[in-house]
Amino acid sequence: MKTLGKKIRLLRHQRGWSQEDVAKRLDISIPAFSKIETGITDINLSRLEQISILFDMTVVQLLTFNDAEQEQKYSNELDSVSKRLSDRDTEVIDLQKKVIELYEELRLNKVTA
């Protein structure tokens, strides 16, 4: 249920509403709504329907809201991080080659000196 609370919080933020705004619209206390968002309180079906209507969604839309987006976002982030890691690996290998070259140059200079 914590992910549902996060979805509700995200929807609330997208609309620029405070917890107080939503609590008033649902006719519940601010602490009660806060517990819904944090996942402390499980949401019954009638409350779920009330929340979905408030956000102009069906219950199914509310329950699945942002799931595909999140998966795509995480996939994109993973691709980006993998690319950066690959770039760093290449940099490390290049630096290792330079260190070896410099070591060999120093070693040869010592031998000839």
Automatic annotation (TrEMBL):
Keywords on record: DNA-binding
Highest taxon listed in the record's lineage: Bacteria
SUPFAM superfamilies documented for this protein: lambda repressor-like DNA-binding domains
InterPro entries hit by this protein: Cro/C1-type_HTH, Lambda_DNA-bd_dom_sf
Keyword presence, Mitochondrion: no
Domain HTH cro/C1-type: 8-62
Gene3D superfamilies assigned to the protein according to its UniProt record, in alphabetical order: lambda repressor-like DNA-binding domains
Molecular function (Gene Ontology), one example: DNA binding
Signal sequence annotation: none
Name of the protein this chain belongs to: Helix-turn-helix domain protein
Organism: Mucilaginibacter paludis DSM 18603
